Every structure is written in structure tokens, then in C-alpha cells.
Amino acid sequence: MSKRHEVEPLRAAQALAQRAGALAPFNGKQLEARRIVSHDMPDSRPADAFRDLRTQLLARAGGGNLSLLVVPVAHGSGASFVAVNLASAMAFDERRTVILVDCCLRSPQLHRRMDLPADAFGLVDFLEGRVERIEQVVHPTAVPRVLLVPAGPRREASGDLLGSARMRLLLDSLRGTDEGVCVVLDAPAVAASPDARILSSMAELSVLVAGYGRDTPAAVQEAISVLDRVRLAGVAFNRVPH
User: Fold this and answer.
1) Which CDD domains does the entry link to (predicted)?
2) How far is CA 113 from CA 29, 36, 116, 128, 199, in A?
């Protein structure tokens, strides 16, 4: 595959980011309903918490481009909430483009949170070869400077897809070589499948999300033992609403 073809999807993603500026952004009520932080929300504490997490991760990465895995200890720990809001907080910086990738192939949900049609081309379509151009699965959203690669059709047997050469090509192409690109992977639970372990070997950094008062210390330690420890940036405790 030529070098020119490899960088082409990144250019398309950046063009999508510019086009996304023409989309009407979510208003305050829409953001609240979707539990997405914004830089101008009345209660700044949630946004500040994600700003702090963003700053720590970017410092750990050296301030450049970043591919980040957000993975829950168990189903219901709240990793999708953290992934979406971390992407939003990273995109507060107008120089940065964030590409959010839904890797939860068994139970995808990010397309609903971002108001994307259920039949939009997604990750599975590219990994299974139905879509050849990566830019076809990268969609603008109503969150400024945040793009989404939805999961696409549900798949129970997801390990072979996520561990494939096409998945590595996708991540390398999205991250690219230009400055200001962050790729955030929303992963399935460590306890549910080997998918999280596979993905942790591909991302530069990983954040483990534990449900505060929900996931036991033993479960957290077991999840840590499964992930690539060199790339594990830390554990984020999320207060899961009841």
C-alpha cells in the first residue's frame, strides 16, 4: 500500500472536522440529556474534572498526537461516559481534532448518544471489507471538533476483527502524522471478553474505568493484570448513577 494512500484518510478526517463546524452543535439541554460536558456549562466541575484528566494524559503522551483506550472493569462501570467526555474535553482546544471510535461491537451505543443513524457505515464495515476508504466510516458530530467512527453492525465474535491488520491500519491512518489528532477508543469491559487486552496492545495509553462503589478492589486488580501495564496510565473512578 502506498504512502499516499495511507495518509489520505487522515486528510479526509480533517476535512470532516471542518465540515462539522457547519453542524448545529448540541444545545445545553441536549448535552445534559446525553451527559456530555461543555466548556461553557453552568456547573464547571464536571468539565474541570475531564480537563484535568485530559491534561494529565496529554502530558504523559508528550503533548503530541495520542491514541487512547478507555476500558471499563465491567459492564456498567461507565467507560462510554468517560470516553465521550474525555473526547469532548480534548476538543475544547480548537487546534485539536478528536476521533472517537466505538469498539464495543457486541453492544454499540455511541451512535445513539451522538445522534448518528444506526445504519451509518462503521468500524465493522471497514474491518470486514465492505468499505475500503477509511473516511467513509468517519462521521462529523454535533460536538465541535469531535468525529465518530461508530461500531456498525453488531458482532458477537469480535476478537479477530479488533486484532486484525485492518484495525491497525485504521488506527495508524486516523492518528496520522499531522499535529493535533487524538483517537479515543471506547472499549468493551475487561471482564467480558479478550477484546480489551487486544486493544490495549494497540493504543499508546489506556485508562481503566472503575465504577465507584460498584467495582470491587479485587475486580480492579484483576482488570489491571489483564491490560498492558506499560501503557496503563491509571484508573479513573466514575460515580455511576443509579
Assistant:
1) BY-kinase
2) 13, 9, 8, 24, 22
CA distance 124 to 158: 9
Nearest to 73 by CA among 158, 191, 186, 187: 191
Q: Which CATH entry fits the domain spanning 3-238: 3.40.50.300, 3.40.720.10, 1.20.1250.20, 3.40.50.620?
A: 3.40.50.300
For residue 142, what are the CA distances in angstroms to 24, 88, 191, 195?
6, 11, 32, 29
In the chain the beta strands, taken as DSSP E runs, fall at 66-72, 97-102, 139-140, 146-149, 181-186, 205-211, 232-238
50-67 mean pLDDT: 87
pLDDT tens figures, 185-197 = 999 999 877 899 8
